[in-house]
Amino acid sequence: xxxxxxxxxxxxxxxxxxxxxxxxxxxxxxxxxxxxxxxxxxxxxxxxxxxxxxxxx
Length: 57
What we know:
- Helices cover about 25% and strands about 15% of the residues.
């Protein structure tokens, strides 16, 4: 197996899950699992202070 590489796909904000689903379906349909083992959506946990308590959104 050759060295795997990272690629970045730019998606419209709010459509990331749809793009991930489409990519995963195409990877399976075209039998490319060996070349694309994982599709990730970067995210971060955002906390807000409300009434003196930290809440995650």
